[in-house]
Task: inverse folding
């Protein structure tokens, strides 16, 4: 539908468009209240956003969230923290507010200071009791605030620890592509037992031999030039383990990219689905939703996905938003599309995705083509997903 664009983002439905307008209004209000030049104010805003004070519905909000994250990180690297707002601008605003307060002295009268002794004993007891209650509430509030603050700092400490560790770990892994450090001079072979009559023996590509010897769950490597997506892809017997484990099988909030457990890279499915978290730091598939921009999609149209047995190049075909549906809902569920048993079924699935796509890439597919789907979370709706589908061209 033409004209459904907010902040450079195009939206497929009127409901998504209106949600984006609400996000934009909320963002404008925040910008009017926060001085983005003040490190302390930015860091405080980021802390409040992480604590859930501000919630957004669409990718417009995600973009703002990423902007504040990057700005806060830059200020922190410069040595600022949330208390670093003793800036001239803040002081000036406080001074202006103080100067603007009207004087309350009544004409011709001198205001008398009242002390506790001016009341009788019964009233003094009531006043003292109320003061004690207020002091207890103040102390309790102070304790609660301290606990919440400590929890927030602990959360962010863990978050930054995993983010930094993940970045360093994957840089090291990228360096091991093509390495012979752990290959032991012998190309590893993999024997896959399909039936009692059929065994398939395959050799791992030379550049992935060291990585495969480190972790036999490695199934491939995904890379998109010009983006931060340059990660190993794992596969195991379930779709839960690598949600919160990294390549070294350590607990990691970032998780790993992983191939759907029902996909088979040897007896190739029509469609291979790779999942990854939408991390606010941009790690994993944190920046996948940038494909909602047609211009970005054109600049990053080529995807490289190598299995450990063969290389593959893909061209982006469809970009759309979807969600996880109830089992009894009769609707196209992209995450269940692994195989098409006929040309008619394949064409039906292509029509469903084309109808959902945010823009026309000009790329089409025919029955027999091999597809690759990248899937991550999207907060434009409950259980929302952001999806990029590509066709193998090499």
Result:
């Amino acid at each position: 539908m033409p004209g459904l664009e907010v902040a450079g983002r195009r939206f497929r439905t009127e409901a998504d468009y209106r949600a984006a307008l609400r996000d934009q209004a909320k963002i404008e209000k925040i910008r009017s209240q926060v001085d983005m030049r003040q490190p302390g104010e930015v860091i405080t805003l980021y802390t409040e956003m992480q604590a859930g004070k501000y919630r957004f519905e669409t990718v417009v909000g995600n973009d703002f969230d990423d902007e504040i994250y990057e700005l806060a990180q830059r200020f922190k690297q410069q040595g600022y923290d949330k208390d670093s707002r003793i800036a001239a601008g803040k002081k000036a605003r406080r001074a202006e507010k103080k100067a603007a307060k009207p004087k309350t002295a009544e004409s011709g009268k001198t205001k008398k200071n009242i002390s506790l002794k001016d009341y009788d004993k019964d009233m003094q007891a009531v006043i003292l009791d109320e003061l004690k209650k207020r002091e207890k509430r103040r102390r309790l509030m102070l304790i609660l605030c301290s606990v919440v603050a400590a929890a927030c700092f602990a959360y962010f400490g863990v978050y930054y620890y995993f983010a930094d560790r993940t970045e360093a770990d994957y840089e090291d892994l990228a360096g091991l592509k093509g390495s012979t450090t752990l290959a032991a001079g012998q190309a590893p072979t993999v024997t896959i037992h399909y039936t009692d009559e059929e065994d398939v023996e395959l050799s791992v590509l030379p550049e992935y031999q060291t990585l495969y010897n480190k972790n036999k769950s490695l199934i491939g490597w995904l890379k998109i030039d010009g983006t931060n997506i340059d990660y190993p892809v794992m596969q195991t017997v379930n779709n839960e383990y690598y949600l919160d484990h990294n390549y070294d099988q350590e607990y990691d909030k970032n998780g790993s990219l992983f191939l759907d457990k029902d996909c088979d890279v040897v007896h190739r499915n029509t469609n291979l689905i790779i999942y990854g978290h939408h991390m606010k730091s941009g790690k994993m598939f944190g920046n996948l939703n940038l494909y909602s921009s047609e211009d970005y999609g054109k600049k990053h149209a080529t995807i490289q996905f190598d299995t450990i047995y063969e290389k593959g190049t893909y061209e982006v075909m469809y970009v759309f938003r979807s969600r996880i549906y109830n089992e009894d809902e009769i609707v196209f569920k992209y995450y269940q599309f692994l195989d098409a048993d006929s040309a008619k079924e394949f064409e039906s699935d292509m029509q469903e995705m084309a109808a959902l796509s945010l823009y026309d890439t000009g790329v089409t597919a025919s029955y027999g083509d091999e597809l690759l789907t990248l899937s991550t979370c999207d907060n434009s709706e409950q259980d929302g997903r952001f999806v990029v589908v590509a066709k193998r061209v090499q």
